[in-house]
Amino acid sequence: MGFAPETLICLLCVILLLPAPSTSQDTFTRSRATYYGSPDCYGTPSGACGFGEFGRTVNDGSVAGVSRLYRNGTGCGACYQVRCTTPEYCSDEGVKIVVSDYGEGDTTDFILSPRAFVRLARANVAKELLAYGVIDVEYRRVSCQYSGHNLMVKVHENSRFPHYLALLVIYVAGQNDITAVELWQEDSQQWRGMRRAYGAVWDMANAPTGSGSIKLRFQVCGSAGTKWVQSRNGLPGDWKPGVAYDSAIQLVA
Fold this sequence. Notes:
Distance between the termini: 42 Å
């Protein structure tokens, strides 16, 4: 089987020896995985999670589209350890991926970026593994780790100040899902829930405004249960589309 030139470039630029990902879940689930074409071997900025450029390059481009694990967008940003099961070609640890897209394949749970797929392989046999196209794998959820990053809130580029606000919550650490986002409405003294527009994008028409910052809080579902976590830094009252704001909080595993 022949390979596209960009896929062969991946074989040269990807470091195959990776540290073992940290995890608190011991049980692996059996499935299958494949990969998609990419001009630079990274992810796609147009993924169904709505991450844009973040979804292309996060985790050094080791990202994946998923089907069952997408969970109507709740699964966006989750991290998994994926390893293939053919001993002569597959490394022991496999690859740690971040969910950035929705995708269905040939009875597969993962459609990997080329960078992620070749990282499943032992040193010097990635080309042979690519020739399979679809492979048997096993996976488990693991903690996402973003050294040097707090939880960030990015104003989506489609937002229109002040009438329409759409947000992305990125760098969600641990094994945590964001299941709700609320903004504080100062004049009525109450929290207003945002709508999950699609994937990881939350939106609201006629969002709160003001000269000060807008308080945010997130409903976080993780191994410790479900709880509300409030951002230490609010969203600026004059928020700008395309800008990411630091929440000054970090989520734990």
